[in-house]
Amino acid sequence: SNEWAVMPSRHCSMSVEGRSDPSMLRHLTSKITATGPITVAEYMREVLTNPVSGYYVKNDMLGADGDFITSPEISQIFGELIGVWCVSEWMAAGKPKALQLVELGPGRGSLTSDILRVFRQLQSALNGAAVSIHLVEVSPKLSQVQAECLTGERTQVCVSDKEAVYHTGTSHTGLPIAWYRRVEDIPKGFSIFLAHEFFDALPIHKFQRTDKGWREVMVDIDPEEPEKLRFVVFPAPTLASTTLIQADDKREHVEVCPEGGVIVQNLANRIVEDGGAALIADYGHDGTKMDTFRGFRGHKLHDVLLAPGTADLTADVDFSYLRRMAGGDVVCLGPITQRTFLKNMGIDTRLQVLLRNCHDASTRAQLIQSYDMLTNLEKMGQRFQFFSLLSRSRLAEPQEEGEGLKRRKKGRVPLPVAGFSELGLQ
Ligand code: SAH
């Protein structure tokens, strides 16, 4: 069957539109003139997701002609292995009758598309479970790209802007798909949540240690050049500077993403109440890095304050913060490197299978090159990290039926979790 075959290359993105758009800068400077310097979080939110001229709202920025390229766009193997992870977690949960596959920030839809191919291939293992797809996306432009990728013709755009579900469709494999703007809008039920390069796009606050205590970094107009923005350290404490920093933090400069914290709390609550698991993959650190806010335009670093709205803005994900916000009612695994996760998931075997079935020299070279891009520690293998939230029931002792089953030691021990298997719990 062609489901395990090599898929056509994706490197054929549309060109990025709206490159020199002064309206975003005007919008920001008039806002700052009216009410004073804005927080970095507000700056990031406006630049990325302002409903009229936000970077994510207007552009398809992914791919070779865009501003950055992501793992699911680089190789189909990435999504296939995550698809196997989803099925594995669903099985470990006792094969619930309904499975919601939820992706936050699906970009061009490639990850979910590769997962759905795996679901079809593993149909008999999925045992007739009712699978539904739920996508959380703020960008109307990207939701269109996703619909084209996942549904072809079979899609319906909802009329009302206020509806929680703003778009519905049916996948090529016959599964229902729904689009939402916010995580809160996703229906309840056993869910596997995926977020790849999603948390890094959420707004961060920036703080600077001073002799008077923590102060928030804000964005202001440069007094010498009214068309230019600059960072300033706010002289007085702000709500964020007094509430978001841990008392024992030793760093000079700290970035916190409260919106990411709220979303992780929401996922954790859902996993506790309805069962399921979350897999979060992003570049990030474990509460050690200081200044990671940066811009990308045309695959190059770009000054975050220059020509706002024409470049992607991003900050490394602080996994220690996500773990703290997830709370103790779920189990957190990781972060581990992308290389370790993909190796644990069997990327080497998968590559060999694809190579065995592929006789075109350039496609073979491309498979090997993309494998190297994903796993090489100098490339994406180290910088990208995998982190998971799991239900506490994943800690329960295995049932001791059957005589041959090896008895486990007393106490609650972790069951093997695909991709993370050799790890201890945190
Ligand atoms: N996961 C994809 C795309 C990453 S880009 C990939 O790895 O290729 C970030 C994605 O998150 C985009 O789809 C963007 O539109 C979406 N996004 C950014 N901020 C968001 C927010 N606040 N709420 C929902 N989606 C958001």
From TrEMBL:
Gene Ontology molecular function, alphabetical: protein-arginine omega-N symmetric methyltransferase activity
One Pfam family hit: Methyltransf_28
Enzyme Commission numbers on file: 2.1.1.320
GO biological process terms held by the UniProt record: methylation; mitochondrial respiratory chain complex I assembly
Catalytic activity line of the entry: L-arginyl-[protein] + 2 S-adenosyl-L-methionine = N(omega),N(omega)'-dimethyl-L-arginyl-[protein] + 2 S-adenosyl-L-homocysteine + 2 H(+)
PANTHER family linked: PROTEIN ARGININE METHYLTRANSFERASE NDUFAF7, MITOCHONDRIAL
Function: Arginine methyltransferase involved in the assembly or stability of mitochondrial NADH:ubiquinone oxidoreductase complex (complex I). Acts by mediating symmetric dimethylation of 'Arg-118' of NDUFS2 after it assembles into the complex I, stabilizing the early intermediate complex.
Protein name as annotated: Protein arginine methyltransferase NDUFAF7
Species in which this protein is naturally found: Pygocentrus nattereri (Red-bellied piranha)
Gene: NDUFAF7
